[in-house]
Every structure is written in structure tokens, then in C-alpha cells.
Amino acid sequence: xxxxxxxxxxxxxxxxxxxxxxxxxxxxxxxxxxxxxxxxxxxxxxxxxxxxxxxxxxxxxxxxxxxxxxxxxxxxxxxxxxxxxxxxxxxxxxxxxxxxxxxxxxxxxxxxxxxxxxxxxxxxxxxxxxxxxxxxxxxxxxxxxxxxxxxxxxxxxxxxxxxxxxxxxxxxxxxxxxxxxxxxxxxxxxxxxxxxxxxxxxxxxxxxxxxxxxxxxxxxxxxxxxxxxxxxxxxxxxxxxxxxxxxxxxxxxxxxxxxxxxxxxxxxxxxxxxxxxxxxxxxxxxxxxxxxxxxxxxxxxxxxxxxxxxxxxxxxxxxxxxxxxxxxx
Length: 329
Known about the structure:
The protein is an alpha/beta fold. The chain has helices spanning 65-72, 94-98, 116-125, 129-132, 135-141, 157-169, 187-202, 215-221, 239-243, 257-264, 290-299, 314-328; strands at 27-36, 39-49, 54-58, 80-85, 88-90, 101-104, 175-179, 207-212, 224-229, 232-238, 249-254, 270-276, 279-284, 304-309.
């Protein structure tokens, strides 16, 4: 899938751990289940989160996202199944695994009367002197260096989210788990957090697991995603795989859509031929026939500028899959 770049510490040195299997996924669950009495909040979830990606865990509020995160972090015990974090089983080796994990579960909390810098200084005090030396660097990393001496009570929600990520980065984690990091943010705040997540992955080789109900942001931010509904994972894969149109629909942009429509009207390989928003859309019996369609248009004098499989939004696919699940239930 996606190959993780070499993980570097905040000091620029490669990180190695004697007890770590670097071939293991960042996160893996097998049949992970959580029941509260007769209610099943997480139902036999099996996930594989590769290293060095932004992984979206997508679902409606109440779908089971936070409950699964709490099991991964050892904050609540699973009713059945197993989980590993960075190749280490949890909860059996929770302490070793979480030493290399930074997490925000729900909205991060701080002392509002203290500055951002002082809040991080308190967090660093329990982690050793080397951690305090990272404060300036992590504040710069999340774009808060100019507001570090301001009281957190004056911060916007987006700034508090970034300060939460800065607190996670104090331990120089390989894996960040962020529960709804864009919840309540304005568009500018969402953009800031999105850029920060992409930089953590692309520039530093970290893995970021993002729980969210914001479909558009997951599509823009993440490389891979899983969709959870009613406690069950109903799809997972790369974003491209999740939004791919399985019905064989193609879109064609050309200099004369009406002429292209006439040229292909009697083609037996073409179905549901129509013009939408100035582009030609069609379904093919087989994807391999796209080249033949292109050649036929070109031979007829139509200038084709784009011919590719139609791409649905992640929101379209999500609504389609969850509706399908409701009908089947």
C-alpha cells in the first residue's frame, strides 16, 4: 500500500526500537468488540493501518469511533478480539506501545489561565528533561510560536487543537491518534489542521489516525480510510479505491459533446450515454473498451481532452454504503 519513509526524531536522527517489529502495521485489530450490557458499540472490527499514512476512521457520531480508540489506548477493555499498536499487543504491553503514541481523545483540555508554553511545560515535567527541550520546536511545528506566551483562554478552538497536537509531539511519537480534530473548526482552522496532518506524514514519516464524521475533510486529508456504521466496518481501503465507481462509468471532456453523443449513440459497448454539465458520461460493459471509444471519437474528428473513470465523492460512497446496509439489515 503506502510505504513509510524513515522515521526521524525531532532532532533529525533515525529512530530505532529494539522491541519493535518495523514490518508490523501501525495499528491492527482482529475481531475487536465492545459490549455495554446488551448493546454492542463495536462489532468484530478488523483493521490494518499501515505506517506512514494519514488514515481516516470515518463514521457518524455514535458509530463507535471513540470507543474503538479507547480500546486501542487501553482506556477501556475489549469484550472480545485483539489489538496491537506498533506491533505490540494491547493491553498486555500497553506501556511500551503508548510510549511511542500521541493521542487526543475528544477535545484537548488545558489550563486556560496559563500560556500555551506553560501548559506544555507542565506536560513535559513528567516526561523528563529532554522533553522540555522540545517545547519551542513543537510550538513552531504546529504554527503557534507567535502565540506561545498568550493565555490559552484567548486561543481559538483551532489553536487549542494545534496545541493539543503540540503536546502529543513532546514525546516525539511515531503514531498520532486524533479523535475528531476538526470538530467545530471554521474553514481556516480546518485548512490549518489538514496541512499540519499532511506535513506530519509526508515530511516526518509519522502515522496519523484521524477519527472523523466530516467526510469531505477525510477525503482531502487522508490516504487510506475505513468506514464504520453501527459499530461495524463496512469498507476500508485507499481513498481512490473507496471512491472508485464500480459500475464502469466514464466521463469524457471534448470540444463538441453533442457531436460525441451522436458518434457513440449506436455503439453496443456504451450504456447510459448522456451529456451532463457540458461533459459526456457513459457506462461501459468493460473498462478496457475506453481506448476503443477514444479512438472512435478521434477518428470522427472530436478532440478529446479527458477520458477517465468517473470519481464519486467519499460522501456519495458513504451514503450509498450506509443506505445499502440499512436496507439489508
